[in-house]
Amino acid sequence: MLAWDDSAPARARAGNEGIDVGDLDKQDWSGFESFVLSPGVPLTHPKPHWTVVKARAAGVEIIGDLELFCRERAATTPESPFIAITGTNGKSTTTALTAHLLSEAGIDVQLGGNIGTPVLELMPPSYDRIHVIEVSSFQIDLAPSLNPTVGALINLSPDHIDRHGSMENYAAVKARLIDASTMALVGVDDRSCWEIGKAREDKSGRDATRFTCPVSIHRRLRRGVFADGTKIVSTLHDGAGKVIGDTSGISTLRGAHNVQNAAFATGIMHLWRFPLETIAEGLRTFPGLPHRMQEVGRIGHVAFINDSKATNADAAEKALLSFEDIFWIAGGQMKEGGITPLTPHLSRVRKAYLIGTAASDFARTLGENNIDFMICRTLDAALSSATTDAHGCDAKQPVVLLSPACASYDQFANYEVRGDAFRTLVTSLVVATRNDGHERHRGSQEKSS
Predict the structure, then answer these.
(1) Over the chain, what HEC string results?
(2) Using CA atoms, how far apart are residues 335 and 320, in angstroms rounded to an integer?
(3) Of 30, 195, 240, 362, which sees the most CB atoms within 10 A?
């Protein structure tokens, strides 16, 4: 067995840890049984990695870590419960929420995959343990025997086209997860997902072992799970609408996109007939995910929201739609289209505070839409100005929102580092404000005595 990394420092670190690192370019590939590829390495587009070319030429199968998990499951506990969740947006929150709901119900849950812990570092499959795995399109591409108990496809929009070549290819990869699942939940609010769900239903016919549950947040479904405002309704078991969840008042599940995420998670729980009280308690106690509309502090009536994961306009749109009276920190390394797609929602922004290399371009768009802005360049300067303005405004619930609509690489290593920096700065502000209040209170006491 040999390991390889294109990075020489990475190969050196692996060698120092006792891993056999060989020069794959000089190996006789016909002696290999399998080639386990990292999901981040191009399999097909824009062109196959050189190792992929060599593996194919030698007739060596190309698989990923998820495939190894599936083979272990098939060999040891083929009917052990396995939930696989995918989609363009929302899969991390849906996966984490599903695992949380199951954990609150007293189930032994293993959470990982494309979120957090790699699937091979989790506890092994077992009949009394449920694996809840976030699955990317890259991982599906490398898992030919993928066959989850429950597969969920939340939504599809153009993404990773450079890696799949076309939207049709991207959708076809996602469809493989649904086709292979015993039970499937499929969003029907976008055309691609609707077609995938319809194809599965047409193929399955009356096969009761191949159950398909459509999910919508835009319309009532005769048979499925749908949203009515913040309420999640099921018409699965008896045709009558039964409320199986409600995200109202749950700060970690703000916005219509989180209603969609909750619809899938509660739909899975309802399919397995968990008590509604258990589902409700799990929703209420969901801590949310870091950097995704995460409330990281509050000073008086001003809430501070860390949405650093919003690295493009589509993601930032969800945050803008979730709040009013926004003091918006935006910017970083701009992506194609900038914030022009957000124009219909800019009326929610009281003022914007622009950072990073995108500041000038964002300022132009905001100016064209008569939105007040300030070019701050750095995150600490933006937070300071936004906090002052939010405290001085007349809004009942002003929000200082970091939702950059940009990559972070001009100033931070990644969005997590950016979000952590924001949280640290906010924590310091909260502590300083609390200490200042204590000092004023003590001074007034001394004066009165």
Answers:
(1) CCECCCCHHHHHHHHHCCCCECCHHHCCHHHCCEEECCCCCCCCCCCCCHHHHHHHHCCCEEECHHHHHHHHHHHHCCCCCEEEEECCCCHHHHHHHHHHHHHHCCCCEEEEECCCCCHHHCCCCCCCCEEEEECCHHHHHCCCCCCCCEEEECCCCCCCHHHHCCHHHHHHHHHHHHHHCCEEEEECCCHHHHHHHHHHHHHHCCCCCCCEEEEECCCCCCCCEEEECCEEEECCCCCCCEEEEECCCCHHHCCHHHHHHHHHHHHHHHHCCCCHHHHHHHHHCCCCCCCCCEEEEEECCEEEEECCCCCCHHHHHHHHCCCCCEEEEEECEECCCCCHHHHHHHHHEEEEEEECCCHHHHHHHHHHCCCCEEEEECHHHHHHHHHHHHHHCCCCCCEEEECCCEECCCCCCCHHHHHHHHHHHHHHHHHHHHHHHHHHHHHHHHHHC
(2) 18
(3) 362
In this structure, are residues 256 and 223 in contact, taking their beta carbons and an 8 Å threshold?
Answer: no
Residue 193 confidence (pLDDT) above 70: yes
> What domains are defined for the chain?
8-63 (no CATH), 66-284 (3.40.1190.10), 294-436 (3.90.190.20)
Query: Which residues fall within 8 angstroms of residue 234, CB to CB, at 6 or more apart?
Result: 224, 225, 241, 242, 244, 267, 270
What's the confidence (pLDDT) of residue 441? Answer: 45
Residues 6+ apart with CB under 8 A from 396: 301, 325
Residue 323 pLDDT exceeds 80:
yes
Q: Which of 99, 95, 89 is nearest to 130 (CA)?
A: 99
Q: Which two tokens stand for residue 249?
A: 């008042």
**Cis peptide leading into residue 46 (ω within 30°):** yes
**Facing residues of 21 across strands?**
3
Side chain identity at 237, as an amino acid letter? H
pLDDT at 397 > cutoff 70? yes
Of the chain, the percentage scoring pLDDT greater than 90 comes to 87
The structure's pTM equals 0.87
- What is the per-residue pLDDT across 148-177, written as a single tens digit (0 to 9) for each? 999 999 999 877 788 888 999 999 999 999
